[in-house]
Write a structure and sequence with these properties.
5-stranded parallel sheet; alpha/beta
């Protein structure tokens, strides 16, 4: 169903990236722990991170299973117990949230602003994020690359997210992401964009006037 709202701010819905916006980036200690679990020499941490990222897009898109992904990272197939430990440690790196961003989102949600999560994430992480309280309380829907079979900045990912907001006009929807290329792709489709640089005040400046408008406060 298409939603309509007479908005002076022009924002009638929010599409939000997870990692780097709501989700905090892993610490060096977390990367080191994962590298140790992968039996990677400490002094080669930059090489481990490169091995981690090279096949990640295919993993996020659901093209690689947990086993296939970690086999590419390690260069060999891990046993089932080791695989679960690697997957769980990997997932744990991406589940910490920024309380400052959550505060802004909860305040915006009081106005009934539709919110959709659009994240490049593998299947297991998607399931974990879906089980969180903030996901159930804040988001009308959550779209993950592993389930869509495609990653941002593929235009089809934004089309799915826009449909989930229920707003027909992309110019009435704000897309927030920490990656400039993702924002650029969204803007090319007509979405309003905020390239998030780690400052919650930037997000608040966009969303809190919407709250005042919608609630009359």
């Amino acid at each position: 169903m298409t939603r309509t709202h007479d908005s002076r701010t022009g924002i009638e819905a929010l599409i939000l990236d997870y990692n780097g916006v709501l989700g905090l980036q892993p610490t060096t200690a977390m990367w080191t722990r994962l590298a140790d679990l992968a039996e990677w020499p400490d002094r080669y941490l930059p090489l481990f991170r490169r091995a981690f990222w090279v096949p990640r897009n295919a993993y996020d898109a659901g093209e690689l299973s947990d086993l296939a992904y970690w086999a590419k990272v390690l260069g060999h197939h891990p046993g089932s117990r080791w695989l679960r430990a690697l997957r769980d440690a990997d997932t744990a790196m991406w589940t910490r949230t920024d309380p400052r961003v959550l505060d802004v989102l909860y305040r915006a949600r009081t106005s009934g602003l539709p919110m959709v999560l659009l994240s490049n994430a593998p299947a297991h992480l998607s399931d974990v994020l879906d089980s969180t309280g903030w996901r159930r309380e804040l988001m009308d829907d959550a779209l993950y690359s592993a389930r869509l079979g495609l990653c941002k900045p593929d235009p089809a990912a934004y089309d799915h997210a826009l449909a989930a907001t229920g707003i027909a006009d992309p110019a009435r929807v704000l897309f927030v992401d920490d990656r400039e290329d993702n924002c650029r792709a969204a803007a090319e489709l007509g979405l309003r964009t905020l390239h998030y640089t780690g400052q919650p005040a930037e997000l608040a400046a966009q969303l809190l006037p919407v709250v005042a408008e919608r609630t009359g406060s």
